[in-house]
């Protein structure tokens, strides 16, 4: 077999695997989002709502991504959160959900923290909610 044809034949399986990964990406993202939503319902809804202005033991998480910490006016935050100079991003939320009191001592959030995979899934779900809200 000519060398060029042999090189092409070797690269076809790799290319097909790459194309299959791209085709599967939306389905994987949807599955991650669905798992994040389930985890959110299991871990977070006892204290947090996603409805704007609907606060429970914790503030509404509607519009959380991109919002400065402690900034919802009609919620009584701990001084630690009111005075924190941070914006909720995937990175800050990841660090906070790993261990709220370790990340921000003095927070009132009574929560031990989550392992990395559940954290990432919940954050992905919250990010998708932010994207959905901005699409409307």
From TrEMBL:
User: Which PROSITE patterns does the protein's record reference?
Assistant: CYTC
Q: Which UniProt keywords apply?
A: Electron transport, Heme, Iron, Metal-binding, Signal, Transport
- Establish whether keyword Heme is in the entry: yes
* Signal peptide interval: 1-29
Q: Report the coiled-coil segments.
A: none
The UniProt record lists the keyword Heme:
yes
Q: Where is the Cytochrome c domain?
A: 31-130
Q: What is this protein called?
A: C-type cytochrome
Q: Which organism is it from?
A: Halomonas kalidii
């Amino acid at each position: 077999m000519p060398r060029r044809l042999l090189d092409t034949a070797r690269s076809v399986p790799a290319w097909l695997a790459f194309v299959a990964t791209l085709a599967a990406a939306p389905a994987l993202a949807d599955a991650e989002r669905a798992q994040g939503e389930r985890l959110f319902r299991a871990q977070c809804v006892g204290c947090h709502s996603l409805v704007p202005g609907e606060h429970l033991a914790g503030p509404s998480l509607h519009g959380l991504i991109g919002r400065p910490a402690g900034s919802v006016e009609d919620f009584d935050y701990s001084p630690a959160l009111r005075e924190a100079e941070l914006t909720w991003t995937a990175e800050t939320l990841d660090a906070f959900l790993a261990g709220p009191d370790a990340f921000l001592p003095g927070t009132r959030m009574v929560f031990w923290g989550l392992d990395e995979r559940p954290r990432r899934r919940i954050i992905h779900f919250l990010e998708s909610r932010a994207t959905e809200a901005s699409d409307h």
